[in-house]
Amino acid sequence: MIVKVKQKATQESIDRLLLHLKESGFDIHPSIGQNTTLYGVIGDTAKFDANSLMAFECVENVVRIQSPYKQVSRSIQPENSTIDVSGVVFGGNEIVMIAGPCAIESREQLERIAAQVKSTGARMLRGGAFKPRTSPYSYQGMGEEGLQLLQEMGKKYQMPVVSELVDANDLPLFEQYVDMIQVGARNMQNFALLKELGKSSKPILLKRGFSNTIEEWLMSAEYIFAGGNPNIVLCERGIRTFEKATRSTLDVSSVPVVKAASHLPVIVDPSHAAGKWDLVEPLALAGLAAGADGLIIEVHDEPEQAMSDGAQSLKFDKFESTMQKSRLIAKALNRSM
């Protein structure tokens, strides 16, 4: 970390800064020029709030050299992590397809979709039981009954299941019924929830918030990892920009950027990024070409009648087409799917 002090800073104010840094356990290396004074701060600054130094009146700027996230950083672990979700492995050679409805609506609906996505090649089944909706009048999900149905269909069709946790109070239910717990975009910085998930033995699917930077996303992963749970898969689901042609803007560049910065697996959610079913396939293929370790796609047999996100859900024939083309991308990358 490098601290630049103001040109007209008093020696007294600088001494207070240096004392604070030394008391925090750092070594100080000064570099004093004719017009610029810099202090190199040597030590483990990963857990130190560099922005707090701006409270000192002598400080003009602080530049962090070491990343604020430590345990999820590739500099700490150069090799890729592989995350095992009940036999399905993320981060290895295989590209993993997760598919299913946005929201679980009934046993019949979930079984029709589960049977189809399984036969088409999906490795995991997704389904929302507790739905965080923008409007309080929108469908909120089936709750625990939905989780029970998801577990039932997962066992019947031999697919691990993933669902989104909204409230930390429901964590015991998710521990009981699902193989992987999803943290949605709205909860990416719900730090109390992340701390509880750090105590969980379940793998976590951590979606990027729609207004969050890559560093903030990785810091959220650090919360879970630091709490004792290293089983994290990251999910790019699009970010909010000025563009209105799509629901969100899929940040394809985040895939190689994150894979260079972190050892954790990264998958892509083209459904939420697109917001439109006809854009899901090209965005899915783009994500795979960029190096994603998997996809999570919403599928519905009657999207026109869906209780949640029907406009971005693929019908069975379109999902099959997407799987076929995805396998071609995987083959070109010397990966399996």
Describe the structure.
- This protein is an alpha/beta fold.
- It folds into two domains: 62 residues, Alpha-Beta Plaits; 250 residues, Aldolase class I (TIM Barrel).
- The chain is built from ten helices and 14 strands.
* Number of domains as seen in the coordinates: 2
CATH class of the largest domain: Alpha Beta
Q: Which homologous superfamily in CATH is the superfamily of the largest domain?
A: Aldolase class I
Find the structural class using helix and strand composition: alpha/beta
Average residue pLDDT? 94
Care to count the β-strands? 14
Number of helical segments?
10
Parts with pLDDT < 50 across at least 5 consecutive residues: none
Q: How does CATH name the architecture of the largest domain?
A: Alpha-Beta Barrel
> Taking strands numbered 1, 2, ... along the chain, how are they ordered across the largest sheet?
13-12-11-10-9-8-7-14
Beta percentage is 15-25%
Rg, rounded, reads 23 Å
- Outline: elongated
Helix proportion: 25-40%
End-to-end distance: 43 Å
Tell me about the biggest sheet? 8 strands, parallel
CATH topology name of the largest domain: TIM Barrel
User: What is the succession of H and E elements?
Assistant: EHEEEEEEHEHEHEHEHEHEHHEH
